[in-house]
Amino acid sequence: MTSAPTTRRSVTVRVPAKVNLELNVGPRRPDGYHEVSTVYMAVGLHDEVTVVPSDDWSVLVSGPYADRVPRDETNLALRAARALARQVGVDDRVSVLIHKEIPVAGGMAGGSADAAGALLACDHLWGLGLPRDDLLEMAGDLGSDIPFVLAGGIAVGSGRGERLAPVLARGTYHWVLAVSPTGLSTPAVYAECDRLRAAAGGAAVPAPEPTTAMMTALRSGDVEALGAALSNDLSEAALSLSPGLGEVLVAGLEYGAVGGLISGSGPTVAFLTDSPEAALDLCVSLTASGVAGEVRRAKGPVHGAQVVPGPSARG
Ligand code: ATP
Q1: Share of the chain above pLDDT 90, in %
Q2: pLDDT tens string 20-79
Q3: What is d(CA 244, CA 183) in angstroms, rounded to the nearest whole number?
Q4: Is the CB of 161 under 6 A from ligand 1?
Q5: Of ligand 1's atoms, which has the minimum distance to the CA of residue 184?
Q6: Phi-psi region of 13 (alpha: psi -120 to 50; beta: other; left: phi over 0)
Q7: In angstroms, what CA-CA distances link 29 with 15, 59, 194, 205?
């Protein structure tokens, strides 16, 4: 192992959350994962991940959701930094500082975002300059959503979600996100999906693929068509584990959203609106109704993980 030519004292990366506009869940694979076809959109809720050279590996977390993030070796950002060091043969260690704005266990890829941030930040800190494809491949080995939050924008994910393909898309979309105070575990939601499918007779599940309705909506930039095309095969399972989400969905649609769905494995409910003003109105109505825990607004698509230039404000 060698010491990397450290060029900076610390590096901060800003990394977005995601919403799944469509999540088609295929059969369970022999490795336990499900084959999926999903359309991801990166949205403007960001975590910041700062890496600082240190004598030992450690994690510090700040921000509204900090108390729900592990600070031990199970932290996904720390795991990503250690995996990168191992893979490239660097024996330097870092402290990982996470400023957490993405809900935890919310179906918005918060942990994946921090892992993506740590990979890119360490790549810069250690002066590695790894090709983008190498970083994406390493990201995919670490977790299904990590390549997408590195890449950002809008993309189709296949395999476990880690194999990305570009999508022809136009427009900026205004989202309202109803965040639950308690999270849902992604493996538990997939297990519930399997249970519900078996209980319904266990018919063979077809190989998942992107729908024409979604691709056409994105290509045209038509917000109404996109609202109508939103879909998630995990909805039923998430609703079964967290029935209160049904009330949130109904309320958002009644208050004027052009579409709404549970993001990924939930429990965040994402509502699409047709303007920034409509998003603000929906935010106010949902908050006043008291059905949703916390309500946030975000625009999408946004860039993937990016190094923040200059010294970090939080570093
Ligand atoms: P996805 O949308 O990718 O399925 P999620 O947004 O539902 O994921 P995460 O926020 O990634 O869920 O959190 C899942 C679990 O991962 C948490 O319960 C937490 O214990 C663990 N975890 C490990 N590292 C982190 C991290 N840096 N940030 C958030 N959670 C983390």
Answers
A1: 93
A2: 999 999 999 999 999 999 999 999 999 999 999 999 999 999 999 999 999 999 999 999
A3: 13
A4: no
A5: 7
A6: beta
A7: 30, 34, 12, 11
10-residue mean pLDDT profile of the chain (315 residues): values are 61 98 96 96 98 97 96 97 97 97 94 98 97 97 97 98 96 96 93 96 92 98 98 97 96 97 96 98 96 95 95 48
pLDDT of residue 313: 43
From the CA of 105, give the closest atom in ligand 1: 12
Q: Is 107 in the pocket of ligand 1 (CB under 6 A)?
A: yes
Instruction: Assess whether the C-beta atom of 110 lies below 6 angstroms from ligand 1.
Output: yes
> Going by C-beta distance under 8 Å and a sequence separation of 6 or more, which residues neighbour residue 92?
3, 4, 6, 53, 85, 126
Catalytically annotated residues: 18, 145
CB 35, CB 291: distance < 8 Å? no
Tell me the pLDDT tens digit for each residue of 232-248.
999 999 999 999 999 99
Q: What's the CA gap between 221 and 170, in Å, rounded?
A: 5
Residue nearest to atom 29 of ligand 1 (CA): 111
Question: What is the predicted pLDDT for the residue at 190?
Answer: 97
Evaluate: CB of 158 within 6 angstroms of ligand 1: no
